[in-house]
Amino acid sequence: MYNDDIPASSRSTFEFQHLDANGDWQQSRMAVSVIDDHTIEFTLPVQFAPFLRSMGTAIYPRHILEPHVDDGTFIETWDIDTDPAEIVGTGPFTIESYEPGRRVVLARNPNYWLTDDGGNRLPYLDRIVHEIVEDLDAELASFLAGESDVHGVLGEEYAQLEPLQQEGDFTIYRRGPNFGTTFLTFNVNPGVSPDTGEPYVAAHKLDWFGNVQFRQAVAHSIDKDAIIDDVQHGLGYPQWSSVSPSAGDFHNPDVRRYPYDLDKANAILDNLGWTDTDGDGTREDSNGNAIEFKLVTNTGNDVRQRVTQIIQQGMEGIGLAVDYEAIDFGELVGQLVSTYDWEAVVIGFTGGPDPYSGITLWHSTGDLHLWYPNQPEPATDWEAEIDAMYILGSQELDHATRVRYYLNAQDIAASNVPLIYTTLSERLTATRNVFGNTTPTLYALWDIRYLYRTDQ
Length: 456
Fold this sequence. Notes:
By secondary structure, this protein is of the alpha+beta class. It has helices at residues 51-54, 62-70, 74-77, 136-144, 155-161, 165-168, 203-209, 212-220, 224-231, 262-271, 302-316, 329-339, 359-362, 381-395, 399-416; strands at 17-19, 25-27, 31-36, 39-43, 93-99, 103-108, 127-131, 150-152, 170-177, 181-186, 236-238, 292-298, 321-327, 344-349, 419-421, 423-432, 435-436, 452-453. The chain folds into two domains: 1-80, no CATH class; 181-426, Dipeptide-binding Protein, domain 3 (Roll). Helix content is 29%, strand content 20%. A hairpin with a 3-residue loop joins strand 5 and strand 6 (103-108). Helix 8 runs antiparallel to helix 10 (262-271) and helix 14 (381-395) runs antiparallel to helix 15. The radius of gyration is 25 Å and the shape is globular.
């Protein structure tokens, strides 16, 4: 049942379509057929192991949206200005109200389909209020004042909050390493700007950045312990593999590692013949070019900026001249995916429990294959190998075999270091002791449908 009291069934949903780059509707390559009122069958063009995990598409109500698909207004039908009463779905909650910049209120959907073991209609909660605050400091202040029930704890806040748990009647849950990563990468895109005709990256810098030994030397210059101690306040983990340990058996703990070792980093660069020949503190390459480049990250993320400064210091410690600048996030994204006019960047990527979620980053044709995106053919043999591992891993239904493909991909990535990883933060959440059915796991604190309050 939709929350507007119209019965929901498989026959009331849309066929699968998608919008192409021009905004035109295209039919999906997978076939969708209705079996009965509550069963839809998907027939895929190839085997695809993460299909169910990838099915994040909402079931849209045909009786509301089909006319807008037909007349081309689907995209603008529901947006932040839409009356919440007009937004129809089958989930456990509906949107009761939305005040831009202030709050979103969700109300229990009395028509939600699921019941508990006792036959009680879910969800248990009547209402969820999401308060929108100005910044992270305001979020913490609200929690300390008792105005909110949940707070995502930063590493720097842990020492302040940990001794207040009993007095404040809350619990801080530590749930292990995050899925999201932070890394340094260099631009090896050999293309030229269509606007200026100039190469995205100067030829001599492409030679540096494309040299795996250079990248390995840089990897040895990053002080992960300093990042954990000084930035994450001891609440972090060194990252060596491209997949977080929180992904379970998909994580490869045995990849090549690059511990902080400036002597080893210097030796690698010396063996390349890239030394400081004029005594000015900056190495020169074999052709006499000073090894200097610009390093950027985004403003608005103090943790990332501090991590980038530690990375800068490490690289300067091995004779590289690094011009560091923090720029607006929108500008940074434009450089990474559009203009390609960058040299080195520290950025993050949201991971997940299945490595396939990173295919746009790791496959050479991907838009987010940051160091050289949208490759017509794999630029290197090792990139071709990773491409193959990700495709094979996505199409393999035997779990153990899938795991082997992704472990191999991590080995190849760690050996060639296109991304130089830093650390993984601890997942920390403070929650008032007023909830029943909290079930902290690697993935979440609870199933919101079964959560209830014990103080009401």
